[in-house]
């Protein structure tokens, strides 16, 4: 079972990095620091609705995988499986 724990830990690290990148790829909703420096003008200029929806879906899927692995690792630690 130690191999399963190591594999899950590697997957959670990769999912964490991917989730961070996916969140940073979302366009800003405005009202923050980006608007103060002119970012609000370019934020509306180039993104498609379909691309944003797909990015949202992918972000949610990766986040659910991340949460499920964290819960699994927690249960494994609690019950001393690995």
UniProtKB/TrEMBL annotation:
Pfam families for this protein: SecG
Membrane-spanning parts: 6-24, 58-81
Taxonomy, superkingdom: Bacteria
An MF annotation (GO) of this entry: protein-transporting ATPase activity
Topology in the lipid bilayer: Multi-pass membrane protein
GO (cellular component) term, any one: plasma membrane
Keyword match Transport: yes
UniProt xrefs under InterPro entries: SecG (IPR004692)
Location (main, coarse): membrane
Keywords: Cell membrane, Membrane, Protein transport, Translocation, Transmembrane, Transmembrane helix, Transport
A GO BP annotation: protein secretion
Subcellular location(s) per record: Cell membrane; Membrane
Keyword Protease found: no
Role: Involved in protein export. Participates in an early event of protein translocation.
Family: Belongs to the SecG family.
Descriptive protein name: Protein-export membrane protein SecG
């Amino acid at each position: 079972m130690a191999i399963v724990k190591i594999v899950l830990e590697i997957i959670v690290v990769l999912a964490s990095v991917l989730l961070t990148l996916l969140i940073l790829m979302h366009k800003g909703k405005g009202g923050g620091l980006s608007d103060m420096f002119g970012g609000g003008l370019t934020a509306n200029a180039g993104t498609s609705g379909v691309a944003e929806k797909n990015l949202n879906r992918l972000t949610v899927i990766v986040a659910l995988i991340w949460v499920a692995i964290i819960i699994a690792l927690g249960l494994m630690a609690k019950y001393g499986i690995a």
